[in-house]
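Components:
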Amino acid sequence: SAVISQKPSRDICQRGTSLTIQCQVDSQVTMMFWYRQQPGQSLTLIATANQGSEATYESGFVIDKFPISRPNLTFSTLTVSNMSPEDSSIYLCSVEDRGEKLPHEQYFGPGTRLTVT
Amino acid sequence: DQQVKQNSPSLSVQEGRISILNCDYTNSMFDYFLWYKKYPAEGPTFLISISSIKDKNEDGRFTVFLNKSAKHLSLHIVPSQPGDSAVYFCSVSGSARQLTFGSGTQLTVLP
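Structure:
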């Protein structure tokens, strides 16, 4: 299994500002995922980030609002840009176990709790 | 349109009894079904999964049942323990290998 850390663990930000969330994995992984969990709701996939290529965004999420970097196989960042109170959520990164066993499990970081005032 | 539904936001069970968490899905093309458990201030952790070609998978106190005709799966925990108190997410995986999650069920096991 992979050990994933995220920074910051929580933050309170003012509307109109941006926050960059970091995700660090203790092993090299090809695919990393960024999710959002709004209060009382499910985990929603924002984008898939592969090293060396542009992130693939899900419907409803755009690169200008959620730019992602993936500079190497152990690290990724997600920026929440021009924040509004509706962006208040827990943001989680995850990686996929690409072993032979199916299904490929995903391992999650502890999340970043963002509150926008 | 929700592809995965967990209609019970919460469930309380007495310690030692069985906990049954339910999940419904809409797309018959999903290949795998997974349950994740989430404690406060932690990320979800994988619990148990089942392939679409099976109808039951058991791992210790945890058993997942799949009813493909009804597009329904359930997670049974027996006996339930206070440490099982957490939010349980049902998720599905298709050909794209992305996970789609339900809204979660908060399980509380009372001592």
